[in-house]
Each structure stands twice: as structure tokens, then as C-alpha cells.
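Quick question, first post here. What does this chain look like in 3D?
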Amino acid sequence: MIQGDSEAALLNLRENHKYLKEYGKNHAIGILNAGLGSYSISPMTVQLTIFEKDLKIYPSIIIAIISQTDIGDEIFRYKNLENNDFSINLSSLDYKFKNKMLENFKKRNLSTFKIIKYSFLYYNFFKKRLDLTNKETDNYIFFRIKAKFLNIPEAFYLLKRGITKKEKIIFKERLNNYINKAFKNNNLKNIYFVTHPSIYHLKGSINNHNSISTIVDEIVTSSTFKKKLTHINFSKNNKDIDLNSFVEFDRFSHLTVESYISYYLPKIFSTINLN
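> Answer (accepted):
Ran it through. C-alpha cells below.
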């Protein structure tokens, strides 16, 4: 089973899918790609529950593709994730916010009042969604504005300004929860975590110390399941992935199809032990 966000979802593209299909056929194994855009560790954990409980799917090997944006998603998107309710909770809050916003702009009053009301709705939406204090909400709104001003995706700006001790602890806890949940499946032999640098790391605008790869390394080496965990860390060898590896003008550092086929997928599958 392959899990992850859009990095994993891109494996459904024709050429990538063809590679997976041929690999599965040649090695007589089944490959299931469960990657979905905007996913990170928390929804991946819930996803395992759904596959096991509802679909009776118990993978023997998991390839977990961890994106550099995952820590931003965990801190700002899935902070209140509990059990299987993440999609319902987030969509409900989002729906209510958009409805109130539309009602506000339909009213026949001065534009100034509409903007003030919108600011109030916007502020309270994120305060409730992320379960923040007033001070934390102020900092978060400022953070979003600054990221947009610098034209850096919010999740990458988190890495640029540096991950706080609290944020690192949160991500580590959730990654550990994922590992513990995964190995409740007695059929599971190994998890292969895959990370690669972003264009911002390669350009030097983000220090390599502020990298999801560093955190994954720390978790893998300290986990009670460390003998069953492998980290395929493309950040350790920038010759494997350079600036030409990414889709042109893509701020989210997605790899090109050629990069997937020429070395990303071959490197991953050459590391996997199918025995």
C-alpha cells in the first residue's frame, strides 16, 4: 500500500501507474495507491482504520510518502482531528464560514461594515478550526499574511521561519501514533518512509535543518518498531533530486513524471524487501 498526499496521488498518472503495474506484475504482488491530495499523517492514520475495518485490507508493506508540507498540514489543517471525524468536522466548519460570509456580503449596508464583519468571521473561523487562543490566532493570521506577501506556500513558510519545539513534538506524536496504529495489523512487515527536499531547500532559502526528513529520521531511530522501519531519504543525496526534478513554476515542489520514472520510483522499489 502506498500512502501520502499529492506526491503519492501523482502515481496515478498514466506513466507512473504503468510503472507500478509492471512492477507488481513482474514481482507477483498487488499494489494499492491510497494517496490523496492534502493528506498527511493524521488522515493517513484514519485511512488505515477505514481500509481495515470497512474494506478488510491488511497490507504487508506500506510505502508512506511524507511531504515537506505535511507538518504545516498537521499544525494548521488537522489540529482537531479525532478518530474518523476529520472530513466532517473540517467541511462543516468551512461550510458555515462560507455561508455566513455570503450572507454578510448580500446585506445592504456600507462596504466598510461588510469588511469588518468578514474580518471577524475569518478570525473566528480559524480560531475555532485550529483551537487557538486569541494570541495564537493573532500570530497565525499574521503568519498567513506574511506567507502570502512573500509568495511562499503557508506550509513551506512554516519551515522557513523554523519549526518550534511545540510543533515538532506535535508532529512526532502523530507520526508515532501512525506507526503504532499501522503495526496493530499483524500482517504488516515493514513501513518505508519516503521524503525528498523541496525546491526551497535546494535553493538555500530554507535551511536543511528545517526539513521533515530530519524529524522522520529521529522518529525512525527511536521507535520501538525501528527494525521494521526504513527511511528512504532523498535529502541525503541531492544528486538524486535537483532543481530540474521539479515541475516548472510549481511552488509545492512536485516531481516531474520523468523524475518519478528515472530514479524516484526505482530507488524506492530497489530498497524494498519483498521477502
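The chain has two domains: 2-76+165-271, 86-161.
The first helix runs from residue 6 to 9.
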